[in-house]
Specification:
Four copies of one chain form a homotetramer. In chain A, strands 2-3-7-6 form a four-stranded antiparallel beta sheet. Chain A has a three-stranded mixed beta sheet with strand order 1-4-5. Chain A has helices spanning about 10-20, 25-50, 65-75, 100-115, 120, 130-140, 140-155, 270, 285-315, 335-365, 370-395, 405-415, 420-435, 435-455; strands spanning about 160, 180-185, 190-200, 205-215, 225-230, 240-245, 255-270. Chain A is α+β, with helices and mostly antiparallel strands. Chain A folds into three domains: about 5-125, Butyryl-Coa Dehydrogenase, subunit A, domain 1; about 160-280, Butyryl-CoA Dehydrogenase, subunit A, domain 2; about 295-435, Butyryl-CoA Dehydrogenase, subunit A, domain 3. The first copy, chain A, is globular. In chain A, strand 2 (about 180-185) and strand 3 form a beta hairpin. In chain A, helix 2 packs antiparallel against helix 3, helix 9 packs parallel to helix 11 (about 370-395) and helix 11 (about 370-395) crosses helix 13. The interface between C and D is large, with 97 and 97 residues. Chains A, B, C, D: Homodimer. Chains A, B, C, D: GO terms for molecular function: acyl-CoA dehydrogenase activity; flavin adenine dinucleotide binding. Chains A, B, C, D: Its cofactor is FAD. Chains A, B, C, D: Keywords: FAD, Flavoprotein, Oxidoreductase. Chains A, B, C, D: Pfam families: Acyl-CoA_dh_1, Acyl-CoA_dh_M, Acyl-CoA_dh_N.
């Protein structure tokens, strides 16, 4: 009798713990997804990369053709938009894929993480589109939904979220003040100017909208009510894509992470502010709501990336061509220890992610902020360690493009900043934990009083050793 | 509305994940246990320690009186023998407390870990008695059960497991050859001689039996069939308790971890070999079965010890008397970071333990060996880190007997050897993981072939970057 | 041709670096010291410990007899008071041993660290006496020198430094306000009251003086001018030794680290304030001067402790009786890696200590504060790691009194608080380093301007990748 | 009075230790070098990079013009070929720069590491040319010296060392068997065929010679006598540069690390085998001699790279534009702690390098193998940690090309494989250390016997605690 395919990916202990919480539909989708990954996605990776031109210009102008056929297949299999966990998309064209719990999706996303670039795109589960769809579904006007949300749900267009500012310490979002959208009440329009960077997807030829965080009410006494989200057509007058930024030398074409200047871009208030006129001043409120599950999605996929790195490591150290000094690499005790530690670290981190996902299911994203925060600063660091060990057993090949490992490393390294650097999350979690002290102290004080009473009743003093 | 008391001990994410797997009885017992800990056990700790004499002789001669009343209370509350998870004890006097799943007990054991010396004794859940009871229940004769198991289940006596040999590298159990029990067929008796050490509980005045691993069939071709388990009365002729060994500077009176010499101790085969005559040669088989859940019990309690250390840390850094340079300790960023890391590490480790416990529930102890092995080398090291941080924020007080922290540290440090050193488990887990390679390679090879086919079909070669 | 004996203790690279800085006398003393260690000190360790009574009372009442003969031998060999590096003691009876550079003494102290309890006592190089002698030599009146310094230099008496206060966060010395010495101008005397703890050596029967930090001028506007150092006879009316504190269960008899209450102890100003009347208000000034080299002495010896732990480890893993699964422990790759890392870590840390010692020689203790601070937070943590590895390869024996390792661990652990916790030194060194920024920025700005000029001159713009 | 400029780069403690070992000439050169770095090299970095074309073809075809003028300047200043420490080059044209001790050069190389790409090239101190020059000077024929060594010493040409084989675990050099040079005795020529990769510099238009390790005597019973070093013109018939490999996403144009196929390349024995006919079979002997100092040179520069990363970090965290939540980054305790740890780690690692360099000076490269091995596995890992911290404080900018940090990271990461992976060196050092056991055991046994005698003489037994 053959083992359940999920056990090729997820530790048996974790599966034993969560299996009772999986619906039959989710179990069915999971098996389909695994088969799709193994039969379609992973075999298509090489073609996907080969279809991106090495030419510095052309690589930004087209999209690998294989992606289209994979997307078609994913739709047929019902593996489309699996990330849609809430009720916001019900009844919406393209919203059929949803309805999984966050816990169920967590496992799917981990599996997709084994092909972290291609699988999310092929199934329409990739950032920043997922977060942008959430924003539009919850806060967009009907016209905005028709124009952007429907084609995003169908995977026909792509989008950017334009927040981080050049030269500004953007991890404190209240610092984001240099991009302004000045209202011309006569025309009911805004004039948007600003200098952003790290705008993921802004290089993509399919991109038709940037959701730009901009100050529309600079004098509002509350720093959290000054901003709005503005929808900008990247082909509009005044939008300049300065350059794709590189990450450890990688440009991530054709999506890219771009430096973008908005120079007096004209935007109509009703159609161009998320939520229309009523959305003015709600930028902060909306981005706060956007971040929670998105952070966790990254962590879910990261478990998959780390697992794939370990799979690659395992095969390398078992390769008879890689014997040194008469021994397989896997015969070295330090290699075996690295494997065991990687196994333990991945298993632990996965469980953290699953618990956080489950918490969103029972308490909502806000109620799960602590669990999400812990995964946020734990999971990428763990994965970097595993990938680094995998690189090391490859010798020089491990830093070259002949393995996906250095690219994994570079991508994961960005997660230690993206959506807030580790340090911010660490301080928040630590401070949250300190809030337990009052209750702890009350209990400890009572215990101490009770213990003194018992000592006295027995005619003893506390032992001083 | 007040929060569920379990959330004072277990992270909300973990609880959300496991709560659906808890029976109503287990939920009820959990609430009772928490109340028992806070109202009885923790307030009695000081008295318990004060009732152990500082005198080097007397401290081995009596048992703190408070223990008796706590045991009585635990029985009344139904918090007795909660560790009995299997069916081996059903219908047996004293076996009523059982029936929890390993997952349910894992949470109970963690809670007890907040008072890791006293709570397990007060509820009859402490090593080595639990493992010894398992041995007797599964392999003992009826007479042996009557004589030893019943009073053990009732908490009336204590016992030792006498395995590790002086001067022998005992982590490889096949090395254990210096303790022999030579058969005198005429008298149907054994003459036992050997030099053991680290025999926990051998100093205890309540102890009436050592279960001794000894070679009874030295010429058996299988090194795993040479040993038997022999029941020895510590007051018998020829038994010498040489000394209690210290762990760092602690002697763990009155239980102790003793060096013991058995010098021609006479034992009747029928009554004195576990399982009687039929038990001869089955020593290895029995000790293998004994180890799995026991290892996990240590890990469960260890999560509780680490949690208590963090609770102590949190209170110390919030103490206004401990300000330095005008700041609370908790206002230092590095302290906050230590708290966050401790929180994250405890939460991860707990989830590992829970997954392993769940695995025992679904697959049995043997099926869960990998999960247990991972917790075995992960959890104590994690807890040592947390305890060390807690010591550090106390300054010199942190290494003194004015906090329980150095004792926690010393106890936890032994877990990195007990039941096999970390290194052995690490190598086993790593090698187990390497067994996945064959299957991995088959899938990877297929993926690579498919990908070559796709490249060819598209007239492309694999991008060489 | 045999190797220089120093190479048994110090890495050849380090010795190559410092050998040209050693005087002939120092080289000669070094060889004598090594021989004294190997022929006398190390063989006497067991006797020394066996001469301390296990009886809880008697162990505080006498001093191991072997110490006396070792001290006599050390004096004969000229290995007495080697720590006296400055000129303060020249011409003083007992001051003959000095005159080594701090660099030279650093190596001697490391060698002594191989027997960290016995060797410093046998050679009169142990804390807190060394620091106390410095205080008396620099700041004491002639009468104080005659009474205390001369017998200290001769090893006839012992002393304590009484600073840390019970219940006070003493790592911020300005918090030390609860011990007061109120002046009675009529009698020219002080009445000293306070509650101190961690007073090393206060349990020792040879101790005849506590140097107590006490507030004598509570209203002085400068918090650094309120304290004086007061000389107190431990047998005086009002001095109560409450208890020896334990460190991980160890009491360090007969020296001890004691809790001491001073209750209206009368002290004459002229004879009892360090420096007499002129010393009033100079407590802080004096303790600052006292700390620098003392911190480094601990680090020097710590290198020796770590080295001995590694020596013990090396022998254990080569012991044929400790084979497991058919292999020597030294045949396991992870053990070999632990050895290599230990070697590298000890070698690095030693070099840090040597550089700091050399810096004191060239710049004085104040000029070397940064180098000393770095060693202070680096060396004990390093040594703890090495000792922990050594414990681990011993299995359970490694935490027992059958090896010195757990005692090493406990002692070293205190160094992470003693003379200021690691955290304080880390923050100081980090802030000191930040002072380089102004100069760095000036240079970087100039380089940037020059580079812009070069780009312009070549008609190029800075490459934006 | 201004501080010595070296103290801007090297810790005062280290300088105090080594300054007495510096000649006046070395001190003078050091000051000149620092000025050259600050006035010329560092300001030219941007121009250098801007002069490399972004075009995928052209970037391999020319060399930045600024390099020529920097080289000219370096020659004028006497800062040319400083690495020439031995006597091999005396009296040779271009060999004038040499004569520094390895210790003196270590400091120079660290300073150059602050501009690790440009400074070594500008001063003709860069790998692989330095090692190749050593090979030619020691083993080349006069004709080979004239043709290759003289222009290399003058910086007129560049060279490659072609050793690592494609698909072969090359860290065990005896595996290198796939590149063969078959002798045609009739023509006294070789026919070289093989597939190499990671051939640094093979992309460079200035390169006129590859020194290729090839099997010339496959049947020699000693696996260390089968190889020879063959000089190959990269423009010869049969040499194919397949591609530059990337390191992370960097191609290191115009030098590159190339995959190279040699397909029946004809080479004359007398002119084309290093050492001519007499050099046949000496390949292994020569490469062994080549590796020692080269490994250390990498470590020396690595200290400089880490130092520059720390300098960049310090400036970033002090930048008022980078405040978050109202605080400078440098006001966060964790940032300060990272700085302190970086300072301590760099200082320790530098001292290791200096001790190893000194050891080469006193014992030769062979005698210093242990010291070199320790630096080899210690220094790059240390530097990666420092660079990673520097990246982290930059947020996303830290992984982009707007700082040199990710490039530093990628380059340093290769050092954990280059010239043997860390693991090989770690095992070697650990095993070397284990060779001390015999001597240790003899001494320990003697000490134990002496101690037993002392115990007996005093009528005591060893205390059993």
């Amino acid at each position: 009798m053959s083992e359940h395919p999920i056990l090729r990916y997820v530790s048996a202990g974790a599966w034993a713990l969560i299996e009772p919480l999986f619906s039959d539909r989710a179990k069915d989708l999971l098996i389909k997804l695994i088969d799709f990954m193994e039969s379609d996605i992973l075999p298509s990776e090489a073609l996907f990369h080969s279809q991106i031109s090495p030419d510095p210009k052309k690589r930004w102008e087209s999209v690998p053709a294989v992606l289209g056929s994979l997307q078609k297949r994913a739709k047929e299999l019902g593996l489309w938009n699996l990330w849609l966990s809430g009720g916001d998309f019900q009844g919406m064209a393209g919203g059929e894929g949803g309805g999984l719990s966050n816990l169920e999706y967590a496992v799917m996303a981990e599996i997709m993480g084994h092909s972290a670039i291609l699988a999310p795109q092929a199934t329409n589960c990739s950032a920043p589109d997922t977060g942008n769809m959430e924003v539009l579904a919850r806060y967009g006007t009907q016209a905005q939904k028709d124009k952007y949300l429907t084609p995003l749900l169908n995977g026909e267009i792509r989008s950017s979220f334009s927040m981080t500012e050049y030269g500004v310490a953007s991890s404190d979002a209240t610092n984001l003040g240099n991009t302004t959208a000045t209202l011309d009440p006569a025309k009911n329009s805004l004039s948007l100017s600003g200098h952003k960077w790290w705008i993921t997807g802004a290089g993509d030829p399919r991109n038709i909208v940037h959701i730009v965080l901009a100050v529309t009410d600079p004098k509002n006494p509350s720093p959290h009510k000054r901003h709005s989200l503005v929808l900008v057509d990247p082909r509009a007058q005044g939008v300049k894509i300065i350059r794709p930024l590189t990450v450890f030398g990688y440009d991530d074409a054709p999506e890219g992470h771009c430096e973008v200047v908005y120079d007096n871009v004209k935007v109509d208030v009703d159609s161009g502010v998320v939520g229309g006129k009523a959305g003015l001043g709600r930028g902060f409120e909306i981005i706060q709501a956007r971040l929670g599950p998105g952070r966790l999605h990254h962590c879910m996929r990261t478990i998959g990336i780390a697992s794939r790195a370990l799979d690659i490591l395992l095969q390398r150290v078992s390769d008879p061509n890689r014997k040194t000094f008469g021994k397989y690499l896997k015969e070295h005790g330090t290699v075996v220890a690295d494997i065991a530690h990687s196994r333990a670290e991945i298993d632990q981190a996965r469980l953290l992610v699953l618990a956080a996902a489950r918490r969103i299911d029972t308490e909502g994203a806000k109620g799960a902020m602590q669990d999400i925060g812990i995964t946020k600063f734990t999971v990428p660091t763990m994965a970097l360690k595993v990938v680094d060990r995998a690189m090391q057993v490859h010798g020089a090949e491990g830093v070259s493009a002949d393995t996906p490992l250095p690219y994994f490393y570079a991508s994961l390294r960005t997660l230690r900043y993206a959506d807030g650097p580790d340090e911010v999350h660490i301080q928040q979690i630590g401070k949250k934990e300190l809030k337990r002290v009052e209750d702890l102290k009350a209990r400890t004080d009572k215990i101490r009083r009770d213990s003194e009473r018992l000592l006295q009743a027995n005619g003893l003093t506390r032992a001083k050793l």
